[in-house]
Amino acid sequence: LKVDASPQLARQIPDTLFGIFFEEINHAGAGFEAGGPHTPSNIDPWSIIGDDSSIFVATDRTSCFSRNTVALRMEVLCDNCPAGGVGIYNPGFWGMNIEDGKTYNLVMYVKSPETVELTVSLTSSDGSQNLASTTIPVSGVSNWTKLEQKLVAQGTNRTSRLQITTNKKGVVWFDQVSLMPADTYKGHGFRTELISMMLDLKPRFLRFPGGCFVEGEWLRNAFRWRESIGPWEERPGHFGDVWHYWTDDGLGYYEFLQLSEDLGAAPIWVFNNGISHNDEVDTAAIAPFVKDVLDSLEFARGSADSTWGSVRAAMGHPEPFPVKYVAIGNEDCGKKFYRGNYLKFYNAIREAYPDIQMISNCDASSSPLDHPADLYDFHVYTDSKTLFSMKNTFDRSSRNGPKAFVSEYAVWRSDAGRGSLLASLAEAAFLTGLEKNSDVVQMASYAPLFVNNNDQTWNPDAIVFNSWQQYGTPSYWMQTLFGESSGAIFHPVTITSSYSGSLAASAITWQDSENSFLRIINFGSDPVSLTISATGLQARVNALGSTATVLTSSNVMDENSFSNPNKQSRCKSRLFLTLSPHSILRLPSPNSWQRCEAA
Ligand code: AHR
């Protein structure tokens, strides 16, 4: 294996090469309030404590929030209610993780014509273990009142529920009940452990909020940024009909921009272009949609005294968010009105924001586009052998014209299991091809990023979580081996071996650093011995004093799990052996050659 680090062949990889794509899929981010296609006719996810003779609960439209009119009406029927009272409870999404000593902020809106005392508790899923409890007096008024209460847990339970009970006969209305841990990342509502896993990928961009989620099966169910900003209580939420669940849009346009900032990643706003899976807006009628997108850009980039910038400022961010990329739709190339709508958006955005890079949905990897674009979107979900061979996909792409944004790639179906080593090997090989072609590939992200283990609509995914645990699949760990490539210097690698058909490799250095990395992927089932040589690199690392990072296993279908979260994770070793079958090896320098035995 030869690394040629001579200056004339060295090339800078774009700063933006590796990032992440967050889609509201698999309950990746959906908040506390749930609904569904029949909203407001059911009370899901609330359940009742009591029986038919003691309590009656239903929804009505008496809320004080004009854009979100559904409220929950609880009528207590009993004069002598059972000990502990009657009421309602909500398990969040498959139980809430309540931890001993931690503080939880409860907000709820209540209306009660008569004076009533509510007991608010955090309990185990069956109500038998009390973790935190307090009583809140509500004085009888026919106006809505906002109540805020801190609850400090006196025990730990991973699948808790929030319950609200009373002994008093009468009617109480509830709306917009929220329970959030006090210790979210930077106070912005994100779970710290999950953010930390994202940060470990060193993402240079964040593409959001979809995917198909942006399109909807029908336009009426597409993501609408305007409905997802402002006070969370006033957001109507919507039914994401592609992934079949209600989202409260508490994780809305503003929060995605905030998340990008928190991650140090460039925001990439994918907006609906008047096209869903099943219906389209005729180009002749697209003007209001174009205006809507221009407003979204003013919301992000406008000064604090502009119309929409002032809304952002009122939400707590007077400084603009640096939106430099937008994608005009998702997977819509070929739809009847795509090209016509695209041009309307493109021209209007170019005029108002000449520096914004626009991403077309049409693949230009093998033939030129018939419309202007700065980047084109490229998605691939396939089997491992095909993806391995696709490391050469961009070798023959035109060096002129728009650059590729590989915004969704993954091995799926039988090769993938629920995230296998085999899948990650093929993906790693594919990424070496993107690095090699990073003169024409500007960005790449794996998809999907997150899955709540209780709703695995799409399989596989990079990060699996439940209410209190999380782990990375091999595809996640594979990505951590590539994060440092963004902005690095690429050096060509050639492999001359009878096994070269199942090997892939890439080498990088940094402008202002002595370090270099060589990554080698053995996709085959035989161990391979390679002699490594490098021209143009100093022997900078002492082989005995350095370590290699390895992802490997004796079984290519090995997966991680909550009980064994690190079965497949990168590990470091000082052993000096051969490149084992089915492995990714990252060497800090091409003059050391090491392997980890852990897996
Ligand atoms: O990543 C899952 C889905 O795959 C995305 O929503 C869509 O863009 C693609 O079809």
Give a brief description:
By secondary structure, the chain is of the alpha/beta class.
Main features:
599 residues; alpha/beta; Immunoglobulin-like; TIM Barrel; Jelly Rolls; 3 domains; eight-stranded parallel sheet; seven-stranded antiparallel sheet; 9 helices; 15% helix; globular; disordered C terminus; binds alpha-L-arabinofuranose
What does this 3D model show about the protein?
This protein is α/β, with parallel strands linked by helices and 599 residues long. It has 3 domains: 2-11 and 489-587, Golgi alpha-mannosidase II (Immunoglobulin-like); 20-31 and 184-485, TIM Barrel, CATH 3.20.20.80; 47-181, Galactose-binding domain-like (Jelly Rolls), CATH 2.60.120.260. Helix content is 15%, strand content 30%. It is built from 9 helices and 34 strands. It has an 8-stranded parallel β-sheet with strand order 3-15-18-19-20-21-22-23. Strand 10 and strand 11 form a beta hairpin. Helix 4 crosses helix 5 (307-314) and helix 4 (287-301) packs parallel to helix 6 (338-352). The longest helix is centred in the C-terminal third of the chain and has 16 residues, at 421-436. It is globular. The protein starts with a strand and ends in a 12-residue tail after the last strand. Alpha-L-arabinofuranose is lined by residues 23, 25, 210-212, 330-331, 379, 408, 447-448, 458. Alpha-L-arabinofuranose (AHR) binds next to loops.
